[in-house]
Model the fold of this input.
Amino acid sequence: MNIEQIYTGCLAQGAYFIESDGEAAIIDPLRESEPYLKKAQKNGVKIKYIFETHFHADFVSGHVDLAQKSGGKIVYGPGAKANFDFHEAKDGEVFELGKVKIKVLHTPGHTLESSTYLLIDEAGKEHAIFSGDTLFIGDVGRPDLAQKGTMTQDDLAGMLYDSLRNKIMTLPDEVIVYPAHGAGSACGKNMSKETWDLLGNQKKTNYALRANMTKEEFIKEVTDGLLPPPQYFAQNVAMNKAGAVGLDKVLKKGNVPLDVETFEAMANHEGALVLDTRHQSKFIAGHIPNSIFIGIDGGFAPWVGALIPDLQQPIIFISDAGREEEVVTRLSRVGYDNTLGYLDGGLEAWQSAGKETQTIESISAREFEQELEKSKLNIMDVRKPGEYEAEHVEDAINIPLDYLSERMDEIEDDKTYHIHCAGGYRSVIAASILKSRGYHNLVDVAGGFKAIRDTQIPVTAYICPTTQK
Done:
């Protein structure tokens, strides 16, 4: 028996490759099938099953394409409904894989069909659980994504409480927990950076698994502080239920070099969004007018999903040479399949053709400090509310990047705004969006709040008005 966790940092997502005696199972695969097929071929095993813990909201699965290419059977938990052929497992159903067994534990709460897969080894010992979004390391799945009709997030949270207590916490402490996500995912609130743990440790350290916790306490703590889910979540669920096309078709359409004239025509006359995926320092130094920056080396796919509302939006992009296929692949992981090509030769080709470029003013935290000493500034903090409330620059306004478009009316075009985030990535995204919409009096604070903390700029913590005395 062999278990391999295939972790993708950009999505904070864990897929799993399990093999035993010539047979393999994949759990929660990403969009691209080729890595799993190559691994199976290299190891001399046949993919027998493709297990999905639930209909994912934060990425598009490649289950249908992988099944077609491998012959593996797609398996979902009880109650799953989809537009493709799959096996709807029963609670307690056991699947044989070589010399091991995989048992289905129906664990609704995150979604109604959510299931945990229990791996039983060659000796009949309960070895590991693949818990999907039911149980994370340090947290549990959010219960607000599958609300329908009269069913509320509290109802789902109650189901999750029962699932954890009746199906998971009854397992031996030495069982290994392999979740679908780690820190950075929007599928939970407080996930650990660790990507696996022993169940016994989680019983001791995970707030949601406290031994004497009542259902009412669980519901309150699990639902407290939940931010609205990113807008692309519902669209990804729909794609996963319908069965997305294979990545090879998306690459054929999107991994296409475009000359300057064609690229410009698509941007100006065909409604294509120009996406600049280079490092923020390069974007600041020079970029195509009206282009949006979301760097490939940051939280690329989730930020694309959060900020580009239409999955059918035509996209053309600029990238560093050699990373074009990576950009198309990572866009497709969150459902953006309408990529039409990239600027051949990059920004250098654009400039060589005599086309206009723009820049963004950027200053260091020390320069920011010096400007603050001279006069009052309009400071925009684009971090998440929790980051801002923990500590922020005095008099800074908090407009989280996720909600920038909705709060655009709060920004005055005759004022200059000094924008910062935590480290300098999100602030440039914000500046690019504002600049594309006609706001030009913008100053990026390089290094963000991390760099600001090394200065003498006054900072303060947020105090809830209800606790003030």
